[in-house]
Amino acid sequence: MKKLEVLFLGRDEVLNFLKMRQVIPVIEKVFEGHGRNSVVLSDPSKVVLRLEPSINGHFSAMPAYIDLEQEAVAGIKWISTFPGNPKQHGLHTSSAIMIISDPRTGFPVCLMEALFLTAYRTGAATAVGASHLAKKDSHVIGLIGASFQGRYQLLALAETFNLYECRVYDIDKKASETYRAEMLEKLSGIEIKICKSYEEAVSGSDIVVTATTYLPPTPFLEGEWCKEGMLVVSIAAGSELKLEVLNKANKIVVDTIDGCMHQGALFPYFKSGQLKEEDIYSELGQIVIGKKKGRENEDEFILYVPIGVGTEDVAVASMVYKLAKAQGKGKMLSLG
Fold first, then answer.
1. What does 70-84 look like in DSSP terms, one character per residue?
2. Which of 19, 80, 190, 193 is least crowded, fewest Cβ atoms below 10 Å from its Cβ?
3. pTM: predicted TM-score of the whole model, two decimal places
4. 293 and 325 fall within a common domain
């Protein structure tokens, strides 16, 4: 019998192979795979272990298989979300670990830290969706939530659009100030404006992204703020969208219908019966492969809800694994 070993990649090693301009086309391929049904997901696609309300946090398991360009890969991500971590423990809100397996044998081949992998792929999923759903001349981003993920949302959109300004609002003004300082160092030519309210960040923006890490007691995004031609992207775990936003949208696009029926901004409205599956215009994969149209004119108000799907993690992790293996990076661990 062969010795069972896996390649271990720590955070710094993973980060060495993550570049947004390389991750975005990988995620585009993932959505092509969804459109062509060359993926396999669990049912439901994300299994959530909720600890609320006794503990402010939850865990998610996200297994997936994807066959891209005649190379198949399977894997699973185990990710936690604990909103109180930064202030209470000095830790990130989320932690994540990824296992990549060889689908020919079922045996694991790689174990990697996946927090930043998650951040990159989530930002890239927004950028891919926006490239099909936003106006091509989008220049102003409205960002709700100066969060860890909010940084990668802007980095990804800056790769896709010629941005002039990002209007950011966070309930914690210090978080907005820190965000501004950090992003000004990373991105040149983009003004980072700290806003005093949700409305100020949203009004007049071409693309609005909600990237909050807390669960608001009530939805805060008003339909009257959402103008013709705008794209709103909701990546938050809770529902920050008032029902009027859904009703106003000319199109509602999701990454996977199944996932959005169980988690994210649309989940409460599916649960209450105020939103039905037929109200969803399309999954993004169908638009990427050209089976359905994305933005059709300058006046459409479109809502895009990508809650995240395991195929994104598996595809990006596979890219990192192959690059690390080719360059001899990481450490081999014996499993017996």
1. TEEEEEEEEEEE-TT
2. 19
3. 0.94
4. no
